[in-house]
Amino acid sequence: MAVNTEPTSRERVRRAALKLFATKGFHGTGIRDVAQEARLSSASLYHYMGTKEELLAGLMREALERLLAAASAAVAGVDDPVERLRRLVALHVTTHARQPDETRVVDNEVRALSPRTRRAVVRLRDDYERLWAEAIDDGVRSGAFATDHPAVTRLALLEMCNGVARWYSPRGAVPLDRLAEHYAGLALRALGHTESLARAERP
Amino acid sequence: MAVNTEPTSRERVRRAALKLFATKGFHGTGIRDVAQEARLSSASLYHYMGTKEELLAGLMREALERLLAAASAAVAGVDDPVERLRRLVALHVTTHARQPDETRVVDNEVRALSPRTRRAVVRLRDDYERLWAEAIDDGVRSGAFATDHPAVTRLALLEMCNGVARWYSPRGAVPLDRLAEHYAGLALRALGHTESLARAERP
Amino acid sequence: MAVNTEPTSRERVRRAALKLFATKGFHGTGIRDVAQEARLSSASLYHYMGTKEELLAGLMREALERLLAAASAAVAGVDDPVERLRRLVALHVTTHARQPDETRVVDNEVRALSPRTRRAVVRLRDDYERLWAEAIDDGVRSGAFATDHPAVTRLALLEMCNGVARWYSPRGAVPLDRLAEHYAGLALRALGHTESLARAERP
Amino acid sequence: MAVNTEPTSRERVRRAALKLFATKGFHGTGIRDVAQEARLSSASLYHYMGTKEELLAGLMREALERLLAAASAAVAGVDDPVERLRRLVALHVTTHARQPDETRVVDNEVRALSPRTRRAVVRLRDDYERLWAEAIDDGVRSGAFATDHPAVTRLALLEMCNGVARWYSPRGAVPLDRLAEHYAGLALRALGHTESLARAERP
DNA sequence: TATGAATGAGTGTTCATTCAT
DNA sequence: GATGAATGAACACTCATTCAT
């Protein structure tokens, strides 16, 4: 039974920062903007965060760890690389559609991190992308996929899916599960997956 | 016979801003950073620009106008929508690979513009994307393409190609002309172009 | 029993600005000058003010409102226009002698205000001057005063009295109450007030 | 026969500065404002002036010297202190009405001068005011004037006349010669001049 | 004579952050 | 917890002035 619980101050700060960093960028967002959005004084903010950069790093790490865990779970025990990729794409698209703020921050604000923090975040992102690389490489090896430059193709598909966070609206024409399927189809065909090619989309 | 001509101060400012806006973002770049990069005092900068925002807007407009002109020229007189899309993708990829700074600024810094300027820039971008939309829609109508959600697919492919600016290096394994072809192949297969599907990539 | 109370920071800012605007003018005073005089950093200043112009406007409005209130009180219920003018002159002179900074700012810095703010300040000043105009016009009507151009004369007398703020010193030869009387005499005689003419000053 | 002679650049600079210093104040006027008003580049300005402050000082000195010369000529050989004062007031008012820019700069911008230059300008002003002081003192001695504090009265009358520069318009109701007479009348009555008192103004 | 280019110092204002209460 | 007060450093931008051409 859902109770109308007011989120904690800490949570309000997190959400405020996420929203603003996503909308205006890290450098375009002032600590006072965050405070106002979280309905706190800027001094009070510092009860719930370290520096502004640590706040950003925390948000990014958290989002990436959640995505990585979800993706690992989604492909665990699945042998077929085609199915693995399908699930990875669907999860990626769904996540970018449902949490556009988190994903936009992750995708766009890495450069705002100090080198030290950046390395940690990039390592997480690399771990995540490795799941994609493994699925693609396995598919190429098994003959399910046919692509000249698997690494390039992986980057292309990741970017393609990232884009969802920039325009998806829950009020749009295509429902989210159909959207995820659509993207999976795009990806598989792009990868030269023969079965997908046969039954190319048709109204 | 190429003469070693030192670029003008005005040009140095333009290039400095482009490089820094692309690397650190508009809000992450100080006017003093630009000045230093252009080997000028920050006061001298203002001989060659209006405000910092006008500098950004000028760069974006210029890049978009050039891209739009090149794309219009590339598809002019070409009836086959498949060929049109192939050329658009190739041009887009090539441009993003060769002028990554310009394209990253165009793709990422729109939100830094004031509403008024933003409108003008977005209009240019829309004009450009319309060329993609026309090629895709024509292809769908002619039966050359098969995709359930052409508008979504267009966005997906554009984002896919934008990504090139983030990672391409001229010292990479894939030469640029091959890269452009590769992306064209990805796009056409994703669009369900039957011929492309038949001869799926294979070494 | 007077306690040695240190004025608040807000009050220190107000006084510092008043002193400096009066001495060096609004445009001749830097925000850092104000900060130094108020023993604060220039950043701290902004806890107690909006913009520099709003600081000026606030000071002017406050001074004018106080003067207007005092003048209204001074003439309230006084029927005789001669007595009214005498009181207005005495109050004006006394105020300019005691608060030379406030009055100099009010008299000299109107042009530094933005049109919008200027209008509000000028309206206050006009309200105040109307008290003078009424006294003079009533006196002319009653035959107590005789002057060809009452409006011009009003301006002349106001300027005459404003001057006090520029040179009066409490260590000067003429005590303030005598000074006020002296100016009242000058004004009444200038206005052709017959009684004042009869007993023209003589030691 | 008047020829339509375009004023020299030097003269244009002088006039531009005068106009702007009078309107916006010395510190409120930028050297680029002057340049624009004079239709020159700001660099070219420096062919016709030293520093900005020297430009101001020159304008003030010139205006004061001309006023001093005119005043000296006006009272030369006139024995009657009443007549001397009458002429001084008339000249002062006329000058402030006809050259409001010059006189406003002289009256308001002394504080913008460096101490050294200020001393020279103040000396000129003192020389000028001495003519007033002599007329008043002579009048008091001769019994033509009756005022308790001649020095104070002199300041009061000077300020009164300075005000003309702030509001006089050639399109106003009172023609300039009448205005000068009016002010002379105000001054003489304020000074307790018995004859003026007798024939107090009456329509 | 005229000016575009150039700049060190300064403008008003905002920044992220700290700390005493 | 929460915040008003405080600040050094930085922000984008303008200043008066110089100089090579």
From TrEMBL, chains A, B, C, D:
Residues 30-49 bind DNA. One of its GO terms (molecular function) is transcription cis-regulatory region binding. Residues 7-67 form the HTH tetR-type domain. Keywords: DNA-binding. InterPro entries: Homeodomain-like_sf, HTH-type_TetR-like_transc_reg, HTH_TetR, KstR2_TetR_C, Tet_transcr_reg_TetR-rel_C_sf. The keyword DNA-binding applies. The keyword DNA-binding applies. Gene3D superfamilies: Homeodomain-like, Tetracycline Repressor, domain 2. Pfam families: TetR_C_24, TetR_N. This is DNA-binding transcriptional regulator, AcrR family. It comes from Amycolatopsis arida. The lineage of its organism: Bacteria, Bacillati, Actinomycetota, Actinomycetes, Pseudonocardiales.
